[in-house]
Design a protein that fits this description.
The protein has 291 residues and is mainly beta. Helices cover 5% and strands 39% of the residues. The strands form 4 sheets. The protein has a 6-stranded antiparallel sheet with strand order 3-10-7-6-5-8.
Length: 291
């Protein structure tokens, strides 16, 4: 799917001058002025460079990423959103970033059930997670992944990057170096997480977990993500599985044999660092061996 030939509401984005502050670490990636992004999905994602691939009479204007149906789709930088739809793109969303970059998300969800019913339309709470015209922070959920338009039956996200609101450029380099979010939530909102994976190091008031599944509370369900290491602090009053007591030593040490665990974080307010799982941003309140 390409968005060339679709009328971009660029003027609205240029005139909308109020944007939130972007995520920390959103430094410029060069002459394009595109900042370092937050990855647009929270799910295990098949990512490869298919920008410019032949598409009939034109070339592919974005990157297609294979992801689960209704995976959370998030803002890659702070900005303002605008709804759109077309016969080819289905349910779409424009994000006008603070940097001046415009991003386009295509083939968003239009199903009311997992049966690919195409009965939901392109509306809030089916396709979109925020109101039309909303200002959003980097990492905040804006939509759900789907298969609308000519992607019917093949859930994936088509994602485009338009520096300075102009023509499309290859998103691949930006996606490869993007910060991977662990979860999505509105900044300042209360959250806690369940993290499943392998305990690879422990001690000195911290654990290091190679996480492959995450659950966001309140609500949420267990979601498979790309494996990544997350360091969590823990306090002396954290609830600890008795079988793990001997592993939590005074000095930090690497485990010769990683151990399957589930760690639950203490309730806290959402920050950008918490969303991306930065060191020191999460604290474990309960650690259990996974059997």
């Amino acid at each position: 799917m390409t968005a060339r030939g679709i009328l971009f509401p660029l003027l609205a984005g240029l005139l909308a001058g109020l944007f939130f502050v972007p995520a920390s670490g959103a430094e410029s990636t060069g002459r394009s002025g595109v900042p370092r992004l937050v990855f647009p999905l929270i799910a295990k994602t098949a990512l490869w460079d298919n920008y410019g691939d032949p598409r009939g009479t034109h070339s592919h204007a974005g990157i297609d990423m294979e992801n689960p149906w209704r995976a959370p789709v998030v803002a890659v930088e702070a900005g303002r959103v605008s709804y759109a739809d077309s016969s080819l793109g289905g349910c779409m969303l424009y994000l006008y970033g603070k940097s001046g970059t415009m991003y386009l998300y295509i083939h968003l969800n239009n199903d009311l059930t997992a049966r690919n019913d195409n009965r939901g339309g392109c509306v809030e709470d089916v396709t979109f997670a925020v109101p039309n015209g909303a200002k959003v922070s980097a990492g905040e959920q804006v939509a759900w992944n789907g298969d609308s338009g000519d992607a019917n039956g093949n859930p994936h996200l088509h994602f485009e990057v338009h520096p300075n609101g102009g023509t499309d450029s290859n998103p691949f380099q930006h996606l490869k170096r993007a910060s991977r979010p662990l979860f999505t939530a509105k900044l300042g909102s209360q959250f806690s997480l369940g993290l499943r994976g392998k305990l690879v190091a422990a001690g000195a008031g911290a654990i290091v977990v190679e996480v492959d599944r995450v659950r966001h509370y309140p609500g949420g369900s267990w979601l498979e993500i790309e494996k990544r290491t997350v360091e969590l602090s823990y306090s002396p009053d954290a609830l600890l599985d008795p079988s793990l007591t001997s592993l939590i030593s005074v000095a930090r040490r690497e485990l010769k044999t990683p151990l399957a665990i589930t760690a639950y974080t203490a309730q806290a307010k959402t920050t950008t660092n918490a969303i991306i799982g930065a060191t020191g941003a999460l604290s474990a309140s309960r650690i259990s061996a996974t059997r």
